[in-house]
Amino acid sequence: MAGTNDQTLREQLLALLQGGNAHMTFDQAVAEFPLDRINERPPNVEYTIWHLVEHLRITQWDILNFIVDPSHQSPDWPEGYWPARDATASATGWQHTLEAFRQDLSGLQDLARDEAQDLTADFAHAPGYNLVRELLLAADHNAYHIGELGILRQVMNAW
User: Fold this and answer.
1) Angle, nearest 10°, between helix axes 49-68 and 131-155?
2) φ, ψ dihedrals at 128, nearest 5°
3) 101 FRET partner, CA 20 to 30 A, in 7, 81, 142, 150?
4) What is the mean pLDDT of the chain?
5) What pTM does this model have?
6) Angle in degrees, 0-180, between the axes of helices 131-155 and 91-113, rounded to the nearest 10
7) CB-count burial class (<10 Å; 0-12, 13-18, 19+) for 3
């Protein structure tokens, strides 16, 4: 029975990381976003669309590396999790952000699939933290900001 429960939990974590059940996926949220608007600030928002997507990338990268690298040093909070306010991205930079996000998401999904990974054991380098907690954290953070991105696209008339 434990094997079945473990497999079910892994499947649900994968579904949550991928998105598409209760919210749009990352790829749906960024699909065909107008490149000439990635550095635009939506009304009453202090950051650009690229800033938001880069924040998603940085945060997810940090969570993944916290899991797999005991010597990983997280950025300073909160400034290290956002690009500089005046930073902009080119079309190439935008693509890099999207590809890096997808690559790290794939890495998190690989961890969820890997039955050699104990989902609930504390990390040796971080007692009180475990894989299921970190995967849920990544999925929760992603879902929140992917929803925000969808709303901001609507506000900007950028669909």
Assistant:
1) 170
2) 95, -10
3) 7
4) 96
5) 0.96
6) 150
7) exposed
